[in-house]
Structure formats: structure tokens, C-alpha cells
Amino acid sequence: MDKTEPPQRLKNRILNLHWRSPVTSRAKSNLVEDSQGAKPPRLPTWFIPHGGGPCFFMDWTLMGGPANTWDATAAWLRGLADQLPARPKAVVVVSGHWEESAFTAASGQAPSLIYDYTGFPPHTYQLKYPAPGAPDLAQRIVNLLTDAGLPAQSDTGRGFDHGIFIPFLLIFPDADIPVVALSLKHGLDPAEHLAAGEALQCLRDEGVLIVGSGMSYHNMGAFRTPAASEPSEVFDRWLTEAVRDPDRRKRRESLVNWSDAPAARNAHPEEEHLLPLMVAAGAAMESPGERTFSDVVMMARISGYSFG
């Protein structure tokens, strides 16, 4: 995005890019194997920073920051799909903006958008992301979680919150890959969320991409102040070392006890934006992760990770 464009021209271009017509039945059939029955390669799992509200689709100077605040994050998100070994047949996204009493898979055929941000320019409430749902995959997720002894249910009415549609407008802008939203579970127990990821790991061999969407640093009161700078660096170093640990047992123990890490509660006064990482890490627990993105945004270090 050229942030030097006049606001009206920028607004019009964004709407033209993302006002999509409904996807075709071809996109809804992505979950079946190809005509030769070839088994898809195992996909990695991701933990992505989804930014602040609709940050990638507006002039950030309106929020009091430099125009290029989110440029590096946006560029990284745009390039993520090219790093995959194959095009996903579907995507499961765990967003830090959805919690339920049980792990809940969105099972609607055509999910709506939830504009769960306030105070942003009017055009950001007209962004569209008409990716289809995948009811059969949602039910499979519920079955896998239930079989693992975890409480799980489906929800036909849940749409895509901004932790899903905002980054995915950059990752898969054509909105032609089915997406299933998966909630966090109340209590935000890291061990439960790691276990949920482990229960879903078989999906990676079936062409399903598992994504945790949150933020590696999420202290809303400290952003844009010096109070974020050093603590975010300290916690980021710890988190990167934890996910890179080649010892599976130690890696799991570190993530379960993340709140004991240096600067942990400065980085996450509430942990809902970190817990999606646990699901992504759990789904690839046999392999250490790696930091694939890092930048300083609003005086805080934020990072993205890939597992498996």
C-alpha cells in the first residue's frame, strides 16, 4: 500500500480490491484430493501477529503514528503463502478475539464478518472477505478434540473476526480457500491449548493449514510508550528461545509455564493474544519452531513464528 496516496483515493482502491463476489463451488471443493489421489505434503503451522484493528488498510497517521508503522508486517503477511510447500485445501484459524466455554469450531457455510474494532475510518467497516466455511471440517475438528478428551462444540453462526479477515486479506487475498474459525477456551490454560493443537496435528497431513492469530506482545496500556520497549525485547527473546528448544519436553514445559518468563505479564497482562501460539505449537510439537518475522511497532517488539 502506498501510504502517500490521498485518503479518498486510498479508500477507493482498498474497496475495489476487497469487495469480492461470492466464491464459486470450485473453491468449496478444495478439501477433496486431486484426481490422482495424491497425498498433500505436511503443512507447517503458523503464529501470526494480526496487527491493530484494520491497520493494514488505512492511513495509520490517522491513529497518531507514522504512516509506515505496519508496512513490514503487511509485507511479511503478503509473502507467507509463497513459503508453503503446497496450497492449503482449508485453513483453521484460532483467533485471540474469540473465547468460549468449550473449544468451538465455526461451522457456517458462508461466514459473515465481525467488525470488532472501534474508532477507525468508515471504509474499514466495508472491507469484505467472502471465504467459504467448511462445515465438514468443523465437525471433524470437534470430533478430534472430543476424542482427545477436550470439550468441543460447533457454532453455525460465528463469523470471521478481525483477527482472521484482516491478516487473511493479505495472506490469501482471493478469499478462495475455506476457513474454519476455532475459539480459545475460557480459562486460557496453556496446557489445554497445546493439547488442542496436538489433537489437530493430523490435519496438517490432509492439506489443512493451522494458524494462530494473535500478538507476541499485547499490552495495550504500554504500546507507544517506553514502558513497552525493553520488556517486549526481553519477552521476545525468551519466547523465541522457548519455541526453538529442540527438546520437546522442555519446550512444552516452557510454554505451559510462560507466565513465569521474564517480563511475561508486562507483555501479556491478559493472555488471549498469546494462547493461539499454543495451538500452533501443539499441532507441531514434534518439531521446534522458528521466528520468521520480527519488527518494532509502536515501541514494542512483535514477532511471528512457524512450526513444523
Written overview of the protein:
With 308 residues, the chain is α/β, with parallel strands linked by helices. The chain has a single domain (44-51, 70-116, 129-307), classed as Protocatechuate 4,5-dioxygenase, Chain B (3-Layer(aba) Sandwich). The chain is 32% helix and 18% strand. The chain contains ten helices and eight strands. It has helices at residues 7-18, 25-28, 71-79, 135-147, 162-171, 190-200, 226-244, 248-256, 264-267, 275-282; strands at 45-49, 90-100, 103-106, 152-155, 179-185, 208-214, 289-297, 300-307. It has a six-stranded mixed sheet with strand order 5-2-6-1-8-7, sandwiched between helices. A two-stranded parallel ribbon has the order 3-4. A hairpin with a 2-residue loop joins strand 7 (289-297) and strand 8. Helix 3 packs across helix 5 (162-171), helix 6 (190-200) runs parallel beside helix 10 and helix 7 packs antiparallel against helix 8 (248-256). The two termini are 31 Å apart. Mean pLDDT is 90; it is low at 1-35.
Concise account of the structure shown:
The chain is of the alpha/beta class and 308 residues long. The protein has helices spanning 7-18, 25-28, 71-79, 135-147, 162-171, 190-200, 226-244, 248-256, 264-267, 275-282; strands at 45-49, 90-100, 103-106, 152-155, 179-185, 208-214, 289-297, 300-307.
